[in-house]
Write a structure and sequence with these properties.
By secondary structure, the chain is an alpha/beta fold. The chain contains seven helices and nine strands; from the N terminus they run βαβββαββαβαβααβα. Bound molecules: guanosine-5'-monophosphate (5GP).
Length: about 200
């Protein structure tokens, strides 16, 4: 069945971003839902591409004006899905990939129950997750502890998802994700024609 909203969730460090990037590179009909956030930009991130980076005041204003389909406070920062981003993509006939936390994923499913596919990317085990997070070297010890505690909570929600991809072998995980996306985008118009090529 066709699903226009393809939602990826995972504890940070499970490989979700890699899966999302692979899907976006493989299927031109997919577009990424660039979320708004109040967290500081990481090196290499681009405003408007990775996130729309907002001040807390601006984010609160967006909440009040109902610009966000869902939002959560995670690690002391706000993250939320911009309504305009999703509406414009759907209007263009595209399918939208989301990288959101488990609560955001469940909110999207509640908002669009017939058009949402929830995919959970799970690490093989918690030790692997910790090793991956440490090797990333983007977080302090304190932030790392917070992320690991949250990872436990997120893992507890995996059964709420339509698909669970256990990321043991990245190539296999990418293949499985690709096969699933191929199924839910069946019936989509010729992919390249959307881009005029
Ligand atoms: P990071 O700071 O590592 O980029 O993201 C932290 C967490 O926030 C990740 O689990 C990511 O999926 C989640 N996240 C990013 N954007 C959104 C959003 O728009 N809504 C929700 N609920 N979570 C988000």
């Amino acid at each position: 069945m066709t699903k226009h909203l393809i939602v990826l969730s995972a504890p940070s460090g499970a490989g979700k971003t890699t899966v999302a990037k692979h899907l976006l590179a493989t299927f031109p009909i997919l577009t990424f839902s660039v979320s708004a956030t109040t967290r500081p930009m990481r090196p290499g991130e681009v405003n408007g591409k990775d996130y729309v980076f907002l001040s807390r005041d601006e984010f609160r204003r967006r909440i009040e004006t109902d610009d966000l389909i869902e939002y959560e406070e995670i690690f002391g920062n706000y993250y939320g899905t911009l309504r305009s981003m999703v509406q414009e993509s759907i209007a263009r006939g595209q399918f939208v990939v989301f990288d959101v936390d488990v609560k955001g994923a469940l909110s999207l499913q509640r908002a669009f129950p017939d058009d949402t596919l929830l995919m959970f990317v799970a690490p093989p085990d918690m030790q692997t997750l910790e090793t991956r997070l440490r090797s990333r070297k983007t977080e302090s010890e304190e932030q790392l502890a917070m992320r690991l505690a949250r990872a436990e909570m997120e893992m507890g929600h995996r059964d709420d998802f339509d698909v669970v991809l256990v990321n043991r072998d990245l190539a296999q995980t990418l293949d499985r994700a690709e096969a699933i996306v191929r199924q839910v985008t069946v019936g989509a118009p010729e992919q390249s024609s959307l881009f005029g090529s």
